[in-house]
Amino acid sequence: MSPLAITTRDATTGPVLEIIGELDYANADELRERLTTLDLRPGQRLVIDLSGMEFCDSSGLTALINARNHAHAAQADIALAAVPAHTLRVLRIVGLDQIFAVYPDRDSAIGS
Amino acid sequence: MMCPADQQPDPQDPDTGAGADAGAGRLADTASFAALLEDSAEDLYESAPCGYLSTLMDGTVAKINTTLLDWLGLEREAVVGRMRFTDLLTVGGRLYHETHFAPLLRMQGELSGIALDVRRADGGRMPVLVSSAVKHGSTGEPLLIRTTLFDARERRAYEEELLRGRKAAEEARRQAEADRTRLQEALAVLQQSLLPDSLPAVPGVETAAHYHTASPDRLGGDFYDVFPVDGTRFAFFLGDVCGKGPQAAALTSLTRYTLRAAALHDPGPVAALTTLNKVLYERYSGSGDPRYCTAVYGTLEPDPATGRVAVHLAAGGHPPALVLRADGTAGYLPTPGGLLVGVVPGAHFTTASATLGPGDTLLLYTDGLTEARTGDDRTGLYGDEALLAFATGLAGRSPQAVVGALTGLLASFGDGLDDDTALLALGAPAHPAARPPRRGPA
């Protein structure tokens, strides 16, 4: 059984992906595959809710960067919600906090 | 085994009385069964599904059954009294008979299941399994040898199939081992192209490096180098590419040679990283497989007059370098906000500068060190604070000593260290080499 689960739901602003478990070398591709099934339209915002993410390594970061590229290719925006403290620290070290909009929780990320 | 007919009840016997119908049927079956047995002794001998052979003690054939004659393609008259058992065998079979079969039979009185080939009249050979027993007379003297031969063609074919299978498997294994060796040699050569064999001598600077490979058959994702850029300056870099394996190695190679080439055009740290960012972004951004690296790149300008070394560096997405001072203190050289190299087109890189006095050392590392797991939990990591404390304990020591101590620290992580880790230490010697003596006043 994969230690990663991804749930999708739709907010008024666009799709919300919730990452539950470990986003790492072993299963980061699941996020990549899930992205290809998303209905993401220009002007929408893709929110990735990380409140349930327990672990994220460099492959997980790559998957998030890929999500950003995917959103931008669809002329949509991307936001990260509820980034765990350890991952936020890594995001800051590698400067990714500059290219991702980061929100404390899902509700603020979807602007409701 | 013979059942004389006169001992059988007559199925037509009127004495059988009222139950005659049922009884008569059973009796008829018994009679036909008996009739089968009746002629079976001779017929079984002749037509048994095996060959029978009786020979005198010198091997001369005394009796042979039809089955064996058919196998051999010989007439009885040509064999009985005219041929010996060994005449029926192939050359190899004859040799084996003389050296093993006959002596053993003489010794033991019987032998079973010996694989031999018999020669057929049409020139072919037929594998058989031979069992023999010596028949003794009433006074114990050997009279003759009784031999049975079983058709072993199916069995031999099966054995040959097994042997062929085993040979093929061994060949495949040898091939796989050869391939594996070749692959490992290729990997080792490629790995060497990703890292310098040894660091060049930099006048007025001591250098030391260490590379920890997380897995021997996974090409590394960390890199470092030190090289001269002009008469007075040297450039250095160290970094970590995303991912593992061959794709990561290709990225490492691209990164290393891009930085070396960029440094020749403009050795400035931001210029070199900006060139690398452009190259990586253009190479990978459209691929759907984003690839990037963290990197710290800088220049060293040793001043032979003072023994000091000026360091200018820039970093993108990389943990901060450490400066270990000769006075026993240590501190990070922060480069906050520098972005991973290759993620966005116009990435920003952060610069920092430091001057190394005699006995000071600049330490660069990849996050394999700080992200090493120190507890059972995947998030219990070694961390920045622990590294700073460890480095402070090494302040004032030479780059070689610093890298040696950190190599020991990496080893102490055991399984907690599951990422490649690169270390590069650059220091101003505590005791600068003797300078050319100044000329005294004339």
UniProtKB/TrEMBL annotation, chain A:
Entry's transmembrane regions: none
Domain (STAS) ranges: 16-112
Annotated InterPro entries: Anti-sigma_ant, STAS_dom, STAS_dom_sf
GO MF annotations in UniProt: anti-sigma factor antagonist activity
Homology family: Belongs to the anti-sigma-factor antagonist family.
Name of the protein this chain belongs to: Anti-sigma factor antagonist
Organism: Streptomyces bungoensis
